[in-house]
Amino acid sequence: MPYLTLYRKYRPQYFSQVVGQDEAVEVLKREVASGKTGHAYLFSGPRGCGKTTVARLLAKAVDCENPGKEGEPCGSCENCRSITSGNSLDVIEIDGASNRGIDEVRELKEHVSLSPFSARYKIYIIDEVHMLTDAAFNALLKTLEEPPASVIFIFATTEPSKVPATIRSRCQHIPFHRIDASLMVPCIKDIAGREGSNVEERALWDIAREADGSLRDALSLLEQVLSLGGEVSSERVRALFGGGSRKELERLTSALRSDRKKAFLELEDSFRKGLSGGRLLEGFFSVFRDLWIIRKWGPEMASHLPLAEEERNFAISESAFWPEDLLWEGMEFFASLMPKARWGMRSDVVLGLLMAFFERVPVGESAAGDAEKEVAEVAPEREEPSRDIEKVEEELVTPEAEKEQKPESQAVEETLEKMESLSVGAANEKLSHEAWKHFIESFFPDDVSLYCALLSSVPMINNEKLCIVFDEKDRVCFELCKIARNAAKIAARKEKLEGVSKILLCCGDEETDTEASSIPGMSSDSPGAPSERPKEESEKVEIRRQEAKKNGKTTEDGSSSKVEDLKGVMSLFDAELLLLREEASENGENGGDIIE
């Protein structure tokens, strides 16, 4: 006897053996038992969920010579045996993907009117029916609406939306769904036992999750593992998938919280052995989803997750170390990277982004018992009281050589120490990570440059004053934020931060109030333009303005016509004026219009 793959060898031969499609099976059994079978059925659902198998069982049930009381075929009569072996002349299976044209449908119509050879009904099973052309569907309409009494059509498709409504309305539509992993595990275990192999429960769950609701895929994966020889273990499954098993992800999740160096080396080794970025991100998303559910609704929710007992215990214990909002951010982060990873993002880039994200995780701290704990404290609390400004100024006066010798890693800490003695004082209040995140994101996408500049800052809050601290190496971001128009935008958003009445910008020992009426070097009317002109230049501008006025080159309110044109352009594009430069025309000093 030729070798059969597992999913063919163990294909269900009775309705009771179908896994995970109880509703669909129950409807069909009742119709067969009552003798009220329809003339056309449309089975829809994802791949490998049992559509074609149930179609064959329905064919056996209606053509069975000795049907059971509950609609089950006997499995032993001549018709049942011939349908099982695929030799029945009255059950015709057609692949809609390769026989999709109108000529094939016309040929089918010519044979429909012929009587069955030996069975009661002639059954046409058309798989992937959505692949038929529009002309083929149109040719099938009349036959489908009024078929011969001895003909039953069974259509199967993974995309029912592509089947014309005129076809769907002439069929009984029976939807199939993905098979739950908890239902697949006992089935896989039973088949592995029949094949004489020992199985490890975690390995079965890994196979079931990887199959993504398709029992056919699960049996194909099991067959590959069995071909490696020995027992079905999680290590063999890991070798087959190239890494990313649940056991490995659990170990990495714990390491990323406690020993990031070890986690980095393990991830690098997994990528080198062939683990794809997309598979890793999907795995981390599943782990974080389970931790988030348990963290939000309690350990009792673990019993509702598709996990083995050992995996369930890990999820309950590990969830205590992860704040709820960080788990949610992790899921958003992984979901945002998945499409990029599928389109070919390099594995080293994925690894770098992962490590950068997990740097925000508090190492070795438990979040249990405090559901409202913030994700990360953006500035450490300092126990010593604020010092006098005079004392700090004396400490800050150090030789340049000494400054250059200071390690770069101490820069932010020294900046925070300096800020204690300024207007803000000691940072004795926590700023919600979510509130700070929403504050920064309010600038995106309207002002991307300001959004990017604020990403490099650290917030400190005390006595309703928020100081946005920049390190010296990020001074360019500080300079960008303190421009009048940007400072005004920052000040206008203070309502987004509860309990904040004033926002300051700080870098080193320099401090700027965002609500100041003007910033040195900037004009309040035209942000970015010089605030003053030299006396001689101002007199020259006044003389030229008067001459331009005499020549009729000003508007009714006395402003230059070019300025009015410029204002119109700014209004049209919702733009801001950054710089105005005054130049003489080629006709001479007084030959051009004045732009101010």
Protein traits:
596 residues, alpha/beta, Rossmann fold, Helicase, Ruva Protein, domain 3, Zinc Finger, Delta Prime, domain 3, four-stranded mixed sheet, 26 helices, 9 strands, 48% helix, disordered C terminus
Q: Structural class of the secondary elements?
A: alpha/beta
Would you identify the regions where 5 or more consecutive residues have pLDDT less than 50? 368-409, 418-428, 517-534, 585-596
CATH-defined architecture of the largest domain = 3-Layer(aba) Sandwich
In whole angstroms, the N-to-C terminal distance is: 95 Å
Count, helices:
26
Helix content: 40-55%
Q: How would you explain this protein's 3D organization?
A:
- The structure is a single chain.
- The protein starts with 5 loop residues before the first helix and ends in a 23-residue tail after the last helix.
- By secondary structure, it is an alpha/beta fold.
- It has 26 helices and nine strands.
- Helix 5 links the parallel strand 2 and strand 3.
- The protein is 48% helix and 8% strand.
- It has helices at 6-9, 22-34, 51-63, 78-85, 102-112, 134-145, 165-168, 181-194, 201-211, 215-227, 234-241, 246-258, 260-272, 277-297, 309-318, 324-342, 347-358, 389-396, 400-405, 411-419, 433-441, 448-455, 475-481, 484-492, 535-550, 561-573, and strands spanning 40-44, 91-95, 122-127, 151-157, 172-175, 458-462, 465-470, 502-507, 510-513.
- It has five domains: 6-175, Rossmann fold; 181-241, Helicase, Ruva Protein, domain 3, CATH 1.10.8; 246-358, Zinc Finger, Delta Prime, domain 3, CATH 1.20.272; 410-513, 2-Layer Sandwich (GMP Synthetase, Chain A, domain 3); 533-596, no CATH class.
- The chain is elongated, with a radius of gyration of 37 Å.
- Helix 8 (181-194) packs across helix 9 (201-211), helix 9 packs across helix 10 (215-227) and helix 12 packs across helix 14 (277-297).
- Strands 2-3-4-1-5 form a five-stranded parallel sheet, covered by helices on one side.
